[in-house]
Design goal:
With 655 residues, the protein is an alpha/beta fold. Helix content is 56%, strand content 9%. It contains 26 helices and 15 strands.
Length: 655
């Protein structure tokens, strides 16, 4: 039994999808647009719960009919988009990228995309903008909700449990999981159904309350207030929430409560009636599902093909194309399927899902190879997935804190910093194998994008300051004989780093990015730290390796993904940016002044202003724009050997 059609809910769908599309195409124009997904969750929870409870009340609820409707609603557009995305991926992607796409497509077809992307998330994960099916994580959440929600409601109905209390209790538990995990396990809080179900349950609770109060006349002013309040909360969420906020967390209450308030207002609420029920809004709402499916693959492929963020004109063209494709999908595919309720239709849809899933799994396994299957292109493609630095190191605790360890020597070495010290773990592992007697017990104590400089803070990396405090406490521990301090110094001090670090000095916060006034006090703080450590133990300052877009493996490729791609013959080196050379000289002087020994990576990687970006066999030396590959570090980073190997004992004179 379907609820009475409400055009204002389609208008609310339009708000949701327009927000998401605008955010993905023009993120600076609507930085909170991603909350449109949360609006979708509330709408879905409300409609599904209404359908189930009305059918239960009428005595005609059927699991078969319920899931048949879900298949007819979800499968047609989804399978079309998955097939088209795989086909275009075969044409433009490199080998490793195409294999990754197969994994994404399999997750999307099986409605477990949220778990797939949760498992992939990490510091060295592929950029989100180059994952054409990333947006299917939300569809996975919804379909997982549809698995357990109908049986739960049916059980509560049969047992005559207090429905609202049950729903409130479950929603509160899910919300608490969300707020309790958002800081320590941010990725899990984002992708886990347990921390997202409360948003769909909010719509379910609203449906239960409206069905309970059916027939009760409400004053018109209440609907108007709810309508204005709902739209206001949604707008507030769109303008206040940012990607660097702890989201969902408490922030998700803005779009969730806003959507619930709009739905609760009913079609006669003032903004529901005149804004959300506007024919244009309703029209966008009707194509919102295929529009959501089409827009992200188009924007993602535009970035992949161009090798950079697409221009505003290209993004606008992709949005226009996605609207056209969405309308065609709605008018042809979706409309045709919805008017055919025969069992054969379900068999065809089920067969299409199995076929797409089978193709996706085959692609994941390497069959077929993509069009760009040149062996050297594949070597370049594989370079960017070679990011497992800590393979072979033990995971344990040092002073109660998680670290990685290699070696068994009596000399104890502590390496502290960010991912630019993590990249040297493969060299330590190689030395532990080739020279186990000389290898020190070495601990890697790091935190991604966290400058090991007291006083440097950044709001969007809240775990940095406490982790750094733990690093420094261990560094001063007398049982540690040697400390190496390293970081992506070029990130923090020579450019516009994506994390806006400041130097906290008393009550003032001095910006560091773009040559800000915080640079000098930050460097002074680093020198002070090195000096204090050097009074008690041997200290090394690991200077940074060259970095920049010219060092990305992809820059070694010429041609177009839409045409022919070849490897550049002059790909072996790139120019050392002058600002990095100046910073390198400055850091070397700081180390010497503090009594620390500088380790000059630039001195090993560069000659006469040009720095290598390939290994002797022609394969890339870099993982991305700033990290050296484990394969290069393992075999060629000999300049860090003195840190890890205990000095040979001096020979004794004869009797």
């Amino acid at each position: 039994m379907h609820p009475k059609y409400r055009p204002d809910i389609d208008g609310l769908r339009a708000v949701a999808v327009a927000s998401v599309v605008a955010y993905h195409a023009f993120p600076k124009a609507l930085p909170g647009g991603f909350v449109g997904v949360d609006i979708f969750f509330v709408i879905s929870g409300f409609l599904i719960t209404t359908i189930i409870l009305q059918s239960q009340a009428a005595g005609d609820f059927s699991y078969r009919d319920f899931y048949a409707r879900r298949v007819r609603r979800i499968f047609p557009a989804l399978m079309l988009v998955l097939a088209a995305t795989l086909a275009f991926g075969w044409y433009v992607l490199l080998n490793r990228e195409f294999v990754e796409l197969g994994k994404q497509a399999a997750g999307g077809a099986a409605f477990i995309a949220n778990f797939v992307f949760w498992g992939e998330a990490g510091y060295f994960d592929t950029a989100a903008e180059t994952k054409p099916l990333l947006h299917l994580w939300s569809l996975g959440i919804e379909e997982q909700f549809y698995i357990f929600w109908p049986p739960l409601l049916a059980l509560a109905w049969r047992r005559r449990w207090p429905m609202l209390r049950v729903l409130w209790a479950l929603a509160v538990v899910s919300f608490l999981i969300n707020v309790l995990t958002i800081h320590p396990f941010r990725t899990a809080a984002f992708y886990s159904p347990l921390s997202r179900f409360w948003e769909l349950m909010a719509g379910g609770i609203l449906a239960c309350m409206r069905l309970r109060d059916a027939g009760v006349t409400r004053p018109a002013w209440r609907s108007h207030v709810q309508s204005v309040l709902g739209v206001g909360l949604i707008v507030l969420g769109l303008v206040m929430i940012r990607a660097d906020k702890a989201f969902p967390g408490w922030w998700a209450l803005l779009p969730v409560l806003g959507a619930a308030s709009c739905i609760a207002a009913g079609p006669q609420g003032v903004l529901n009636r005149y804004l959300l029920s506007n024919p244009l809004m309703v029209g966008i709402g009707l194509i919102s599902y295929p529009l959501y499916l089409w827009h992200w693959p188009l924007l993602s492929y535009a970035r992949i093909v161009q090798g950079a963020a697409p221009s505003a004109a290209v993004s606008a063209a992709m949005v226009a194309a996605s609207v056209v494709l969405a309308w065609l999908t709605y008018r042809t595919v979706e409309h045709a399927v919805r008017t055919r309720t025969q069992p054969a239709t379900l068999r065809v849809l089920g067969g299409s899902a199995v076929a797409v899933l089978a193709v996706a799994v085959a692609v994941q396994l390497g069959l077929p190879a993509p069009r760009h299957d040149n062996p050297m292109l594949q070597t370049l493609s594989n370079a960017s997935s070679d990011g497992e630095y800590y393979e072979g190191l033990a995971s344990e605790t040092l002073d109660g804190h998680f670290v990685r360890r290699i070696g068994e020597g009596t000399r104890k070495v502590l390496v502290i910093g960010d991912s630019h010290i993590s990249q040297y773990a493969p060299r330590a592992r190689a030395l532990a194998r080739s020279a186990p007697d000389a290898m020190s017990t070495t601990y890697f104590f790091e935190y991604p994008a966290c400058a090991p400089v007291p006083g440097m803070v950044v709001a969007i990396n809240p775990g940095c300051a406490p982790r750094r405090a733990q690093m420094l406490k261990s560094a001063f521990d007398p049982k540690i004989d040697v400390v190496m301090v390293g970081a992506c110094w070029n990130c923090y001090f020579t450019g516009n780093f994506y994390m806006p670090y400041v130097f906290q000095e008393g009550a003032s916060a001095l910006p560091i990015n773009d040559g800000g006034p915080g640079i000098e006090p930050a460097l002074a703080s680093l020198q002070k730290l090195l000096g204090e450590l050097a009074r008690h133990k041997k200290v090394y300052l690991l200077l940074d390796n060259p970095m920049g877009s010219d060092f990305e493996p992809g820059r070694m490729i010429a041609g177009s993904r839409l045409g022919t791609m070849t490897v550049l013959a002059t790909a072996g080196s790139a120019v050392l940016p002058p600002a990095q050379e100046r910073l390198n000289d400055r850091l070397r002087a700081i180390a010497l002044a503090a009594g620390a020994e500088p380790i000059d990576a630039v001195g090993q990687l560069c000659r006469e202003g040009r720095c290598l970006r390939t290994m002797p066999d022609g394969a890339p030396a870099y993982l991305d724009s700033n990290h050296l590959r484990p394969a290069y570090i393992r075999d060629h980073a000999r300049y860090v050997d003195p840190v890890f190997l205990a000095p040979a004992a001096p020979s004794r004179a004869g009797n």
